[in-house]
Write a structure and sequence with these properties.
- By secondary structure, the chain is α+β, with helices and mostly antiparallel strands.
- The protein is globular.
- It has a 4-stranded mixed beta sheet, with helices on both faces.
- Helix 4 links the parallel strand 3 and strand 4.
């Protein structure tokens, strides 16, 4: 897996990228244009040249603001592969991932993300606006639109210290 702290230059697409991306776009088309249940976001996760999971936007269907196509697909892939580690997988998504979906892809240790539309396309054509979230992440926590206030830091540090000292602690 590439080091996530080191920026990389965009890679060229590989032959199967178009085939898998077309499936992600088909899922987006289905949920938005055929079923008219959600915005046009679809995703497939591929490992060793095979689709291991699919997902489409289910935010309105499930009443869950985290049920983006990528999140649905990541959850399904983790269940299918029986692990939280999606190393060796590529995430194909119909739109550039929002901050939440990008972070989930990172934490799942996916090898790469391939996307079709951009965040700006989603804003221009669908009214989806992730730009303020991206901008807020560059602000200090207390100055964000959704302010974050720290409380009970010393108490939580004690928990972290105890966790760190566990010889058999869970590792991610």
């Amino acid at each position: 897996m590439p080091d996530p702290t080191t920026p990389t230059t965009p890679t060229t697409t590989i032959p199967d990228d178009e085939r898998f991306m077309r499936r992600a776009i088909d899922l987006a088309r289905k949920v938005a244009l055929e079923d008219r249940q959600a915005g046009p976001f679809g995703c497939v996760i591929v490992k060793n040249g095979e689709i291991v999971a699919e997902g489409m936007n289910r935010v309105l269907i499930d009443g869950d603001p985290t049920a983006h196509g990528e999140m649905v697909a990541i959850r399904a892939a983790c269940r299918a592969l029986e692990t939280h580690d999606l190393g060796g997988c590529t995430i194909y998504t119909s739109s550039e991932p929002c901050p939440m979906c990008y972070a989930a892809s990172w934490w799942a240790r996916a090898d790469r993300i391939v996307y079709a539309g951009t965040i700006d396309d989603a804003h221009t054509f669908g009214g989806f606006d992730d730009r303020p979230i991206l901008d807020a992440l560059n602000e200090p926590p207390a100055q964000r639109r959704l302010p974050a206030t720290q409380c009970c830091h010393d108490e939580m540090l004690e928990v972290w210290k105890a966790f760190k000292s566990l010889p058999d602690r869970p590792w991610y």
